[in-house]
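Appendix B.2, paired examples.
Example (i):
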Amino acid sequence: MTGKIAGVAIVVTALIAGAALYYLQVYAYYEEVTVSAEGGPVVQLTNVATNAPEPMLVEDFNGIDADSSPLRFRGCFSTPMSVPMLTETFVIYDAAEPTTAPNWFDCFNAKQIGADLESGKAFAFLSEKEIGDGVDRVVAVYDDGRAFVWHQLNEKYQD
């Protein structure tokens, strides 16, 4: 009888620990991000001529971030800036690889954005180099004005 009690206790403890670990990875730590020129983070693009980030026009921003990792930043928004103007003015980011977002943040689909970047339906730009140690902020923009922003590891940590 004691063995059954110990076995049940181990299984229950493992289930509780697994559920807690899942919650901490998928839901905990994330906070909503607002974008504004008056204090919140501003989405920027790096200018080709000056090599300095400049604010871009952003509408309907929906974003998340967490202090637990520099890679947890994601955002979805729209911009009235045209892709031809962006490609002539701002640094194109050739190594763009969107990182997956939690399932509950449904406006950001990393697989679709990545496929669209490869097919030429979307264009990636350097937002800010070294926003964190070895981390760049990247913006992808579609012809229809949809845009997405995320953080990804740069060449410092890639083989």
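Example (ii):
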Amino acid sequence: MNTKSLIIIGLCAAIPMAAFAGKMNNAEPALQQTEAGDEDNNVITEECLTNVSLFHESAKNKQYADAWEPWSAAYKECPAASVNIYIDGDKIVEWKLSQTKSGTPEYDQYRALLLTLHDKRIKYFGNDPKYKKKYPVAFILGQKGLDYCTFYPEVAVKTEAYPWLKESVTTLGPNSSINVAVKLADVSYEIYKSDPEKYGEQYILDYQLVSGVLATMAADPDNKNAGAAASNKDYVDQRFAASGAADCSKLDELYRPAVQENLDNLELLEKIMNLYRRIGCNNESEVYFAAAEAAHRLSPTSESAAGCASMCKKKEDWTGAIEYYNQATDLSDNEQDKADYQYNAAFVYYNNLKNYSAARAALNRSLEFVPNQGRCYMLMGVMYAASKPYTDGSAKAAILNKTVYWVAVDKFVKAKSVDPTCADDANKLISTYSKYFPTKEERFDLPGEFGGGTFCVGGWIGECTTVR
């Protein structure tokens, strides 16, 4: 190091902090001093580096009042000297805003300055290899969008912030800030509400983007913010579902051409299917069925099989529906989904094919995946109560057919014992069917059948119960 440099460093080190602070505090803190001047003459002087060191140390200790003057000087004289001019500057200017009355000219100047900070940071450091990986341009734009939304509350529809937020989330994907992603969904929603006809498609696409990003983050076990991503995804999903943009007919109008033109594009088909399923448009829509059928042909999955099952049900192809539900069960890795698919198959057997024994087999399989499902026992009880296993037409058979109500009530009791949410419905059915139990006189007339404490109901039911 040469002698001149040593002398300069020594002189800088010898400047008393108090004296320097006094000099800065006596300077007029005019707003125009915080606006970068002739950037072509952006010379990084020793004084500039001293100012950077001063404001950075103060900002690190949250002493923003002390940081303001040296930061203002550095920002004006040498805006390319250090990225800390922008990292710390964001906090420093926000502090200044907190000390200024909103609605005043000074407040407006400070919040405009805050946005300009992001633009200058992109200009000087957006492509700097040292910062590009951690703070790429897309990240900075996201922060700019957040600041605009925070400090311009009087702007109801924040169209100015929309492109900044959109570029940030589109570029960063699951590396996005959760706050930026959620804010994009909020801003897109407000734009949509301002003109639903014009911005309906845009809002749907933005919702898909944000919901997908948050879902990926929530599913990543290594993401420390997975829980926050999941809860924010719930918020975004619920708002979309209530927005009116989620109308199934609107979705059909939007996605019918996309499906027809992309029957070999599995990725797109799956995205469309997932959207329909999330908002409950997967049971009636021909567009969803077409996507599911094409996706199932390309690469069978549980979801595509379930979509094909729904299509078969609409066409009243009951056997086809059951076949697809069984395929969905075999293809799924999720126990709850498997249980749902088998319950749906059981309901088709019961309601449409009147095949009670096959329905019970499917319900038992559903219970293997998720035990203690009250709904399964409730449906078994309903089927038992609707059965007449004794068919010879005799008076004895008429009495014996009443025993189905014993086993039906057994299932209703079981349902409410394993699933308290079924209790009200189960109690109503117990009260209804208990009235039809074999009477004391009827049991007396058939001592051979009712002589013991146990009776086994015949036919397809084949279950034993307590005589009562």
